[in-house]
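REQUEST ID: PR-0412
SUBMITTED BY: lab tech R.K.
PRIORITY: routine
TASK: structure prediction, single protein chain
INPUT:
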Amino acid sequence: MIDVVGLGDDGWAGLDEGRRSRIRRSTTLVGGRRHLDLVGAHVADDVRLVPWPSPLRPALREFLDGLLAASDDVVVLASGDPLRSGIASTLIEVLGEDAVSIQPHVGSDALARARQGWSAEESVVVTTVGRDLRVVLPHLAPGARLVVLCSTGADPARLGVLLTEHGWGASTLTARWHLGGPLEGARSGRADDFTGTTPDLVLCCLETRASDPAAAAATAGPVPGRPEDFIDHDGQLTKRDVRASGLARLRPTVGAHLWDLGAGNGSVALEWCLAADRATATCVERDATRAARITANAETLGLASRVAVLVGDTTTTDLTSLPPADAVFVGGGLDPDLLDRAWATLRPGGRLVAHAVTLEGESALLATHARTGGELTRLAVERAVPLGRYLSWTPARAVVQLAATRPTEDPT
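STATUS: complete
OUTPUT:
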């Protein structure tokens, strides 16, 4: 068993006697150099002080095996809440939850909310530690309150630039560093006017306001059906009204995974990820230029870590080699064999949604519907466009939609 003890920026002074006693009883203390320096003067000389290996993840399993073989009383020191973008999550992943005990300290995000007077219920914590700052973008909405965990003192100003570039420069950005310690400090200002470097061990509190409210309202929030220009595209994408209908039947949920087969420029996969926290997607697209555009779009939206892109033909791609899907969308390369393979690979309860605009595609959907059941819907959208001095309805190409859920017990 490894005990993980959280420390505040005030180090030993901020620990209660129970945590101090636990640290003193250990034979091996493991942590970052800063953590070891905070407590090293308060333990016996024969206690081993062991820093983490670098790089950490590739060497972690062997490192932990060696520690546990040499000592039966290992304490890991961590910052604040070790399960908030901390080492405890990694240890549980490697060793299992029964092998790790956690004694958290008050996390920096909780201290920041206390300084701001924000309740936990009205705030969202986003970690950018070791990640692209653009992971903040999916959480931007008028009036949102975000606590953004940062990697270095350069990040607050970089975050201000990012917000300004995306139309949120009017947001209030408050940088807070060394929370709970003797060096605690803060600086606040508009995002579009925040410059300079702060001390490290910093986070940012954001009260989001759009510089262009109309533009922000068009793309903010989790509900699908964003305007076509929410991504870069060459015209090959599912249009917003049809896209919203498809996603309503795909039902994005927290942490769920989507296959977008024949993904075009990725509009369905990207809106799937934006609709639910930690939702992920694998896109299969045969055109290399479009596949690269999906990757670029994902990066721009802060979804790079959640969208994987495979360049390949859907007719030959081995679907069993992809991460298991909770839902499948087929928007391009539609044929009966692809639908059969997608359906056969879906887990029980998984959703299949497919769109067709050709007679051959409709025939494939009809054949699949005869076997899978579900809903067949014909979507016809008309938009008012100028006709001389007047407006006239202009129909878009009708789309036939199949939506089916694989039953728990499927005889096929």
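NOTES: The chain has a mean pLDDT of 93.
REVIEWED BY: pending
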